[in-house]
Amino acid sequence: QVQLVESGGGLVQPGGSLRLSCAASGSIFRIYLMGWYRQAPGKQRELVATITSGGSTNYADFVKGRFTISRDNGKNTVYLQMNSLSAEDTAVYYCNARLATVQVPVGEYWGKGALLTVSS
After folding, report:
1. CA angle 78, 84, 90 (to 5 degrees)
2. Long-range Cβ contact pairs of 33-36 (< 8 A, separation 24 or more)
3. With contact defined as beta carbons under 8 Å apart, do 42 and 91 qualify?
4. Tens digit of pLDDT at every position of the chain (120 positions)
5. CA-CA distance, 95 to 118, in Å (whole number)?
6. DSSP string computed for 54-104
7. Residue 107 CA, distance from chain mean position
């Protein structure tokens, strides 16, 4: 069984920074893609950023230049460094991974989410 556990959410003032982490654990054979999505109150879940095992990244336009995604393949962990935060970034941030286990060649997995609140 695969688990994705996010950490690092919290309350931040506008203009501040925060780093989210997500560690994948379980019977993982290989992780192909890891990423972050977010869901604000009353809105649909949206892509924030993704990163391949080789380090190629993709960002939503609304975070380009402010957020940086990175990963530690040895620790099966993905990070999201968020800078210049504004109230519009308030959301639950979900970790996502597309990976292979011994039993499943390719599957998609989600964390339970980490709440980020940007407020003064």
Report:
1. 70
2. 33/96, 33/97, 33/98, 34/71, 34/78, 34/95, 34/96, 34/97, 34/98, 35/69, 35/78, 35/95, 35/96, 35/97, 36/69, 36/78, 36/80, 36/93, 36/94, 36/95, 36/96
3. no
4. 899 999 999 999 999 999 999 999 999 999 999 999 999 999 999 999 999 999 999 999 999 899 999 999 999 999 999 999 999 999 999 999 999 998 888 899 999 999 999 999
5. 19
6. T--EEE-GGGTTTEEEEEEGGGTEEEEEE-S--GGG-EEEEEEEEEEESS-
7. 17
Residues constituting the chain? 120
| Amino acid letter for position 109 | Y
